[in-house]
Amino acid sequence: MDVLYFAWVRERIGIPKENVETDAATVADLVSELVAREERYAAAFADLSALRVALDQELSAFDAPLTGVREVAFFPPMTGG
Amino acid sequence: MRVSVQQEPFDLGAEANRFAAGDTGSGAIVTFTGVVRDLAQGDLDVMEIEHYPGMTEKAIAAIAEDARQRWSLADVLVIHRYGRLAPGDRIMMVATAARHRKDAFDAAEFLMDYLKSRAPFWKKEISGEGSDWVAAKDEDEAALDRW
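Predict the joint structure of the above. Result:
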């Protein structure tokens, strides 16, 4: 699936987007896999309460299942307007 | 209803005129414009606005549709810019048209509250001191509870 990062999450991880091969059942499982990879992921995901997640461009939750999901995005709380 | 997510500036007067044109049933048109505010010390060079192409347009359209369900509106306009902006630049505008002003005012406030916390934009302030991502405020999230 495609995994996208925005704002300071993108800056900490160092890339805006990547394709991830995963069998993770939930968003939280995917986060655990990423965190185990490299320190920059651990730095980005250190505090999940400071992060939001969207599944296929809809706001979702970290305990949500990834079944059928093609695009996951992680970002800080939004500051539009 | 029109939603535009764009890099280029917009002409507030022209947009408001176009929005109002030909609508004889609406007795009230409310417009709100968001402007890049300088830092307290007055040294903001650039406000960089990042967004999530695809999700942004969908999220704004859903918020505008929600407003149309809640209030009696003849039309809704949302323009939101991204990219590099300078202090004083207009970031965004909303316009609402309704038969009566309460619907137009309330819907415009609702749109602003939701755009602030539910449309995927992120602002970074760049000054001589460095750069900082603008943090979301608890009060902005709390503002959603009143609707």
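Chain B touches chain A through 26 residues (CB under 8 Å).
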